[in-house]
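ok so I'm stuck.
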Amino acid sequence: MVPGFCGSRLVFSLTRLFTGPVNKARARENPGVTRLRRLLEHYAVESGALSVVTDGSALLVQHGGASSILRPVWVGEGYPADLEAAWARVHDSTEPGEPVLVAREFSGASRQRLRERGLSWLDDSAARVVTPHGLVIAVDGGPAVPEPHTSSVFRWAEASGAVAEHLLVACQAHSSDLGELVIPAVVDLAGRLAVSGATISRALRGFDDKGWTAKRGAERGVGSSRVLVDPSGLLSSWAAWYTREPREVVSAHAVVRDPQAFTDELVRSWRGRWWALTGQLALERRAPFATNPAAVDVYLETELLASPVRLQETLDLAGLRRVDAGARVRMIAAGPYLPRLTPAGAEPVQVSDIRLYGDLLREGVRGEDAADHLRRHRIAF
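replied:
not stuck anymore, here's the structure
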């Protein structure tokens, strides 16, 4: 769509943005600067009515006889916790220019907060940039400004996700008075998670490249170590990957008048079987959020769900019948690593705050608010 003028304002509206090649040197720059500049340069090429000059971490935009200074602020994955942390850094800033909050994909709750505060923002599917000097850019219906693909881009996988989850659980338990969390040796992580040393080393190198972890002391040998320096960034990236991962779920129905009492009954009915509580009911047990859980969410061993005979025995013990809709109990395949990542001892066994955060995010906007509550009040990074 060709940009046009509306009074003294230059107004743009697109349903698809330029996704052409990017200079390799640019791909290593601040992702917020890179994304916003790609957006603006597209308009400059299309219309000739706009020019862009980079000045450090700011962009000077000439448009319609006026000029605007834009300051991209990188928000990472775009969850509410990411947004609040970024906004706290800039909202009292005396630097000139209009802050533009940039993320890979702002969540629904984050977009609502951006609208309420009248902030300019951009992610990989939409944008809303407004300046006091008449520049208005509205983009919807992407794809918009994807991150450039390079050979060094970190790719999540099930094993690296388990390593991250383990480090995040450890970080939550780590006292800030002790300084940075020192990451255990690769051989120790391999033993705890049943993941090969080569896989763990590859994951940790990827974490280093993203700035979530860093080496300290000598390069290797005595005196060398690796520490977790950005748990918030690691948590948000892990959660964004985790919530997109498919999982096997078996839905069941029973008369559940009191979910808490029903869960206590499961402790007796399923004794001898590994299972773990998650979801809204787990949240109510540790950080109440004034919700009325619609279903009881539990993890069961993947092998159990895959066996029709063992699954039916498990359903019968709890008085459950399998259904396609109207589930009161959802049984989720635990995967190969969750039993090793889940704290033991309590009854019922409950997933860690980290896994619970990811599971709540899977529930959409309603779950996102609950996840943000958990992150602020329990995880704290």
